[in-house]
Amino acid sequence: MLNIRDKGAAIWEKWNRPQRVTFALVLIFFVALLPYAGEFPLTSFLNTPITSYQATLVYPVAMFVLMALGLNIVVGKSGLLDLGYVAFFAIGAYTMGILGTTTGLNTWEILPIGIGLAMLSGLILGLPALRLRGDYLAIVTLGFGEIVRIIALNLKQTGGPNGVVGIPNPPAIFGQKFSLDDHAAYFWVIFLMIMLVIWMVRRFTVRRPGRAWEAIRQDEDVAALMGVNLLVYKLWSFSIGAAIGGAAGVIYASKVMFIAPDMFTFNVSVLILACVVFGGMGNMWGVILGASILAYLPERIRFISNSRQLVFGMVLLVIMNVRPDGLLPRKKREKIKQKEAK
Amino acid sequence: MNFSVLTTQFWSLCIQGIALGFIYVLISLGYTMVYGVLRLINFANSEVVMVGTFATVVAQVAILKNPATSDPLHGTRLVLTLFFALVFSALACGLLGVLVELVAYRRLRALGTNRLASLISAIAVSIVLSEAVRIYTHSAPVTSPRLLEKWSFGEVAGANFRVDTVMIIVSGGIIFFALDRFVNKSRLGKAIRAVSMSEENSKLMGINLNRVVSLTFFIGGLTTGAAAFFYTTVYETTQFNVGFNLGLAAFTAAVLGGIGNLRGAFYGGLFLGVLEQFSSAILGSQWKSVTVFLVLVLVLLIKPSGIFGEAVQQTRT
Questions:
Q1: Per-residue pLDDT tens over the stretch A275-312
Q2: pLDDT > 90 in chain B, percent
Q3: Within a domain: residue A224?
Q4: Residue A48 within a domain
Q5: For the stretch A235-272, what's the b/e string if a residue is b when 16 or more beta carbons lie within 10 angstroms of its beta carbon?
Q6: Which of A137, A219, A313 is nearest residue B131 as measured by Cβ atoms?
Q7: For a surface tag, which of A80, A150, A282, B65 has the fewest beta carbons within 10 Å of its beta carbon?
Q8: Among the listed ranges A58-67, A144-153, A174-183, B183-192, which one has the minimum average pLDDT value?
């Protein structure tokens, strides 16, 4: 089987610092140009029928990459199966929706509030739920996702089934204006957040929390025996994942200007989880690739409109069976190190 | 908040809850049997329920030629029609269960990969199933003919014993009892229990693992199909998305009772059915699922393995 992961990793390990920085900068440059890829003849095959390519790039593609990276911390890094990740997305979106329409605060001021509330709800859910193991955690998180949606559906403050309308767009920042049709600006904001998350996860991975998560993922009992405080590190992982979901929600609500409970169904949680598993659990680059493909594919095949979900399901089924560890599975650093030692 | 129903409709809610509970029991057997053997959440089971409801309609309308507007049947013909629909739906779901296992699980199981891959693969199968039915039915609800006239046997303490309620409780009880006997007494049941204790050891004892797994999916499908028949008989309508809520409730019931345990599913399902009826009567039906999940969290906090279950292993990813 083609092993891009180990080859890529090997090249990366060989490089020195300036080479790595140059590569990262070039990569960032090209990704930042992605919103205009539809206009170049060479990359115009990316254009999506019916929906606008730029809009697709912001939601779902970039948004899903961001959320999949957040969920990857929970599912991929620490091995906690979360089936209700959409709850945090919804909490972020409703924070933006309610505060944005009732108070004078703007998006950038609400962003930290939304992140904080999502983290807080992660803590409140996590404190009882993270004591549970395995599949019990899965069902409790699933239930939490549904509860958040049902509460949003039935409360007067959240607008019930009609949702919240007239959410303000973000104000201009550094001379960059934001409006409903200005997709590139949103893409850059989310891209910035994605880069921040990547940086954060990379730092975590090589430090104490990352090692604790890895230990918990491999074997909870052994980790506890080695003195890892299970609940504390699980809560950290859970609430950091929640914070990223909340941030995505705030930006999403501010972009589409309208939110309703039926945008936050269980299907979204499943799709994001599918992005993580499909790309390669635990490996950020795999997750990014997986999320890009799974978010982009249904839009690209929209011309077969009625059966596109059917085709999507079949593709997912086939690829999961052909590459069960995902497209780019977790890197096995030890292997490379061992080769070097020889 | 309407607590007066506790005094005025107590027994009536109980009997309705038990009937609903039996539907949940039969569906949650589809989850719990598979979980017991493979330690996997059989996510596609919710769509198996959905297919079962359509199989019931097909049996009644297309095969036995009772158009949607036909009058209620009586006597032997009624019994035979219902029995045929029940068997048809159960067999269809049983075979579908086997097919789901072949398509979604078998290869991944042979590769011995992480459990989440199987989960996503099962989710993919359920997307395919529900989308296929959605396209075929043009997203429209399908009604089943009212073949069973819903007359009542009479009232006891305010509880109305309707014929469909009694039918569900009696036949649900029989199906559960038969399954319990099968798993605990028969040779094949012994093989299922052996595999659920240890896959490797049961292989060493000469048990054909793949056959036992297929059998488990088949039995889980049978009970799920029976539940789908009861559901269609009571509610007389179905749609491509009925599976999700039913499956979710049944899965909750299985966890509540202790997943992987037949009797756990039984008590969990009944408890959940009654709880749903009472919470929708007291708080309003929109808060039904919230109550259910809060109770679930409380139960799991006090007894993390469910009411009747043993502690599960941690998720290995």
A1: 998 888 888 999 999 999 988 888 887 776 677 778 88
A2: 46
A3: yes
A4: no
A5: bbbbbbbbbbbbbbbbbbbbbbbebbbebbbbebbbbb
A6: A313
A7: B65
A8: A174-183
CA dist., res. A290 & res. A327, Å (int): 7
Residues whose CB falls within 8 Å of the CB of residue B157, separated by 6 or more in sequence, listed in order:
B11
C-alpha distance from B193 to closest chain A C-alpha (Å): 20
- The pLDDT value recorded for residue A334 is 47
Q: What does the block give as tokens for A208?
A: 């104490």
Domains of chain B, earliest start first: 5-302 (1.10.3470)
Using DSSP bridges, classify how beta strands B237-238 and A258-259 pair: parallel, antiparallel or unpaired.
Answer: unpaired
Measure the CA angle with vertex A45, ends A39 and A51; round to 5°. 75
Question: How many A/B residue pairs have CB atoms within 8 Å?
Answer: 142
Which residue does chain B place closest to A279, by CA atoms?
B117
Identify the band that residue A63 occupies on the pLDDT scale cut at 50, 70 and 90: very high
Interface test with B, best of A275, A309, A311, A321 (most B CBs within 10 A): A321
Scored b (16 or more CB within 10 A) or e, A158-171 reads: bbeeebbeebbbbe
Closest chain A CA to residue B124? A313
**Residue A266 and residue B244: Cβ atoms within 8 Å?**
yes
Return residues 20-49 of A near B (CB < 8 Å). none
**Count of domains in chain A?**
1
Residue B250 makes CB contacts below 8 A (sequence gap 6+) with B24, B27, B28, B30, B31, B45, B46, B49, B227, B269
Residue B312 confidence (pLDDT)? 47
Coil, strand or helix: which one is B261? coil
> What is the longest distance spanned by two Cα atoms in chain A?
67
Q: Which residues contact A156 (CB under 8 A, 6 or more apart)?
A: none
Query: What ipTM was assigned to the predicted interfaces of this complex?
Result: 0.85
Q: B200: distance to nearest CA of chain A, Å?
A: 21
Range of the domain at A214: 55-265
Put simply, the chain A residues between 65 and 84 with a CB less than 8 A from any chain B CB are 75-76, 79-81
Distance in angstroms (rounded) separating the CA atoms of residues A108 and B261: 51
The SS3 call for residue B154 is strand
Q: How far apart are CA B60 and CA B68, in angstroms?
A: 9
Residue with tokens 């606008």: A52
Q: Is B114's CB within 8 Å of A281's CB?
A: yes
A273 touches A141 (CB < 8 A): no
Q: What is the pLDDT of residues B255-271, one digit of tens each?
A: 888 888 888 899 999 99
Asked whether residue A145 is domain-assigned, the answer is: yes
- Between CA B146 and CA B86 the distance in angstroms is 15
Residue B95's φ and ψ, nearest 5 degrees, are -65, -40
Nearest-Cα residue of chain B relative to residue A140: B297
Nearest C-alpha in A relative to B138: A306
- Tell whether A155 is within 8 A of chain B (Cβ): no
Please tell me which of the candidates B132, B293, B297 has its beta carbon nearest to residue A146. Answer: B293
- pLDDT for A238-282, tens place per residue? 999 999 999 999 999 998 889 999 999 888 898 899 899 888 888
pLDDT for position B309: 64
Query: Best residue in B109, B285, B317 to probe A by mutation, most A CBs within 10 Å?
Result: B317
Say how far apart CA B87 and CA B179 lie, in whole Å.
15
- Tell me the pairing of strands A164-165 and A258-259: antiparallel
| Tokens (6 digits) for B44 | 């596609």
